[in-house]
Write a structure and sequence with these properties.
Phosphorylase Kinase, domain 1; Transferase(Phosphotransferase), domain 1; 27 strands; flat
Length: 738
């Protein structure tokens, strides 16, 4: 018994030390401990973070598949949390095509900006992995505060918007995994991340251009996005690349032969794209290749011999092309790939273009020699042309009668050549291609022969198709069928107006095509209008979605409404004649990636579709012009009303009710006016800014047309309102109201 007591007396201190060691050796500093408790609260107490108490030593938590915390020098260097909320690709899909967010995301109280503000206080983090936690909102640019970060994984969440360019400042990043989210737009230039080895951007809405990447990458996954370009030649420099997955996109052009022989390549997945042409039969393949998937493309010819031989360690998938190799049961006929490629072929650098350059130089030299003779010839040409113009004027009507008996595309001379330099300069300023006149064949090419799968809308004015120019950029094609007297001449005169529809706050018109034909006993025309594509949704979408609505505080809403007003001002005064009757409504105000407003579906044509009467706006209908102008002002007022109240308006009664609420707020008290506004903007506006906007809104909604303001008055008041707001914000009033 005495020996037992001696042994216990000796072992007891050892046992005490063993129990207390975790608490005495390594513990997070108090500030980082508080951060983890804040993270638990902001993530709304997920299962992985249950059971934490004030006695929890985070540095000694047993690692599990759902939670891992690693410490060094009493600071957290790794935080991995895995939840059970489905990613967008696995969420229940509603009839509207949207996923069911209410059960999958964190609640509407969640703020991704606040969450990352707290997280960045863990300044020594090297690994941050937040998977399937229901995070939603745009990824904040403050992500660059993680100076030591080597691994960032926020996959399987609901993070949307553009990737912040600040990611490029994370110079230590080795792995970037942003898959299974809702990211959209172009990928920022991350070529400066020279130690990055893994990039996974799969299952988002990114594109269309191939990202600018460092050649240090070992794995690139871009699958299931919206990339639409050729595979760039710079990929040949990726000597360490083992996995290259660009499947389920819209990559086009030929497959570069070098892909199969990259020094380290093992897995190559190019399936479900629009890659075309024939692979050279004698290309070389890396001996380490384990998987090549080129299925579901537009490839023709035979498989290269190094793929057809099928070594034991290599799996080759090539079904649903137009290849002559293998079982024809699983290949399309050749004509399928040829036809489909017409709508997706990229610009071709023709030999004729190079020849024309050489020819131009020769002609320039010859032209210098005969300059004097040319001047004399020009004088003679002017005299002949004037005579010809008079003759053309006399014969114009007779030719138009003959033309109506056959189909023809619009002549390329419809747009006044004097306007081209101006429209080209404007196009360049907006980053748009120059205005052009398309042929019917080109219209068929860019819509894939008006394939029904590309039809995205149909209404009383015609159909709307999605299409692709040969450079891969997405456009919309509006198809209008018209049957009117003297239609061809009227449209020809209006084409100059169409060519001027280039403005920062309009969905710009890129070009047109007119096809005339005989419809039974009447002359008819189809007009195809090629429009800029704005993929980010409408202002109506933002105000209907509580997540997106939170993004639009008062300053953002003011900037958007000013943009709309400037667009309307351009329609009314930027062309001659002005464009009125523009069907202004909140669903026709599109927002690009920078939340710049662009008016869509405005009045394109000088005549109403299916009517013989001129549209409001012609010189001989002055009263109709004024009515249409004031109707545009009223509709702008309705948009302002929805922006202020945050409520979608579907009837005239709702306009009246909301209008009365704002009127009562103006006359009774500031608190009542604030109460009538959208709760999402509370605390973000200066009262005088709100009051000015409400006043001009009510003026726009006057029943008496004569009392409605001009668009210049509306714009002046909105600009004054934003000036008041900016002054209020700069004075530090961020959460209180004046």
């Amino acid at each position: 018994m005495e020996n037992l007591w001696v042994s216990f007396h000796f072992l007891f201190p050892v046992l005490i030390l063993a129990v207390l060691a975790p608490f005495s050796m390594a513990q997070l500093i108090p500030s980082e401990t508080r951060v983890l408790f804040q993270v638990q609260e902001l993530l709304e107490y997920p299962a992985a973070l249950q059971g934490w108490t004030n006695w929890t030593n985070f540095c000694y938590l047993p690692p599990s598949p759902s939670l891992r915390v690693v410490c060094s020098n009493n600071r957290a260097t790794e935080l991995t949390i895995v939840g059970n909320k489905s990613s967008p690709s696995h969420s229940p899909i509603l009839a509207s095509g949207k996923f069911k967010v209410s059960q999958q995301t964190l609640s509407e109280r969640f703020s991704i900006d606040s969450f990352f503000t707290v997280l960045t206080k863990l300044s020594n983090l090297q690994v941050l992995s937040l998977v399937s936690l229901g995070l939603w909102g745009p990824l904040p640019s403050k992500i660059n505060r993680f100076r030591s970060l080597e691994v960032l994984n926020v996959s399987s969440n609901f993070i949307y918007g553009q990737l912040p360019s600040s990611i490029a400042s994370l110079k230590n990043l080795r792995s970037l995994v942003l898959a299974d989210n809702l990211f959209s737009g172009s990928v920022p230039d991350v070529k400066s991340l020279v130690v990055l080895q893994e990039l996974n951007l799969g299952d988002n809405h990114l594109g269309p251009g191939f990202p600018s990447l460092s050649n240090s990458l070992v794995s690139i996954k871009l699958r299931n996005n919206s990339f639409r370009s050729q595979i760039p030649s710079k990929v040949r420099n990726f000597a360490q690349l083992r996995q290259f997955d660009i499947s389920s996109n819209e990559f086009l052009g030929p497959i570069p032969s070098f892909l199969f022989s990259l020094p380290s390549i093992q897995n190559l997945s190019l399936a479900k794209n629009q890659l075309r042409e024939t692979l050279p039969i004698n290309i070389s393949c890396n001996d380490e290749l384990k998987l090549v998937d080129i299925s579901h493309n537009l490839l023709t010819g035979k498989l290269p011999s190094c793929l057809a031989s099928k070594p034991s360690n290599l799996t080759v998938l090539y079904s649903w092309n137009c290849l002559s190799s293998g079982n024809s049961k699983y290949q399309h006929p050749y004509r399928f790939c040829h036809k489909e490629a017409l709508a997706v072929k990229p610009p071709i650098k023709s030999k004729k273009r190079a020849s024309s350059i050489k020819l131009g130089l020769i002609l320039a030299i010859i032209g210098g020699v005969v300059a004097i003779a040319g001047i004399l010839g020009l004088l003679i040409l002017v005299i002949v042309r004037r005579t010809g113009e008079r003759r053309d004027k006399d014969n114009k009507f007779d030719r138009s009668v003959v033309d109506k008996t056959s189909i023809r595309s619009s002549p390329r001379s419809n747009v006044d050549a004097r306007r081209l330099p101006q429209t080209m300069r404007l196009a360049a300023a907006l980053g748009l291609p120059p205005y052009r006149v398309f042929t019917l064949e080109e219209m068929e090419d860019l819509t894939n022969n008006f394939d029904p799968s590309n039809l995205i809308g149909e209404g009383s004015q015609g159909q709307l198709y999605k299409g692709w120019l040969r450079d891969g950029s997405v456009v919309l094609v509006k198809c209008l069928k018209l049957n009117q007297k003297l239609l061809t001449q009227s449209l020809a005169q209006h084409m100059e107006v169409l060519s001027q529809m280039r403005h920062r706050h309009l969905v710009s018109i890129l070009g047109h095509c007119i096809v005339s034909y005989q419809d039974h006993s009447n002359a008819a025309s189809s007009v195809f209008i090629v429009l800029e594509y704005v993929p980010n949704g409408s202002l109506g979408d933002y105000l209907s979605d509580w997540r997106k609505k939170e993004m639009l505080k008062w300053p953002q809403r003011m900037a958007i409404t000013i943009g709309v007003a400037r667009g309307v001002q351009f329609l009314h005064t930027g062309t001659a004649p002005g464009v009125f009757g523009n069907n202004l409504k909140i669903d026709n105000v599109l927002l690009d990636d920078s939340l710049t407003a662009k008016i869509s579906n405005y009045n394109f044509l000088p005549f109403k579709v299916g009517s013989d009467s001129p549209r409001p706006g012609q010189d001989n209908h002055i009263s109709s012009t004024e009515t249409a102008e004031k109707e545009d002002i009223y509709q702008l007022g309705v948009i302002l009303l929805e922006v202020i109240t945050g409520k979608r308006i579907t009837s005239a009664i709702e306009v009246t009710d909301l209008k009365h609420q704002l009127e009562d707020g103006l006359t009774e008290s500031a608190s009542k006016l604030r109460a009538a506004t959208d709760p999402s903007i509370q605390g973000s506006f200066a009262y005088q800014s709100l009051k000015t906007t409400v006043e001009i809104t009510l003026n726009c909604l006057c029943k008496d047309l004569c009392k409605r303001p001009s668009i210049e008055d509306v714009l002046w008041n909105l600009q004054y309102s934003i000036q008041v707001q900016e002054g209020w914000t700069s004075s530090g009033n961020l959460s209180t109201q004046m």
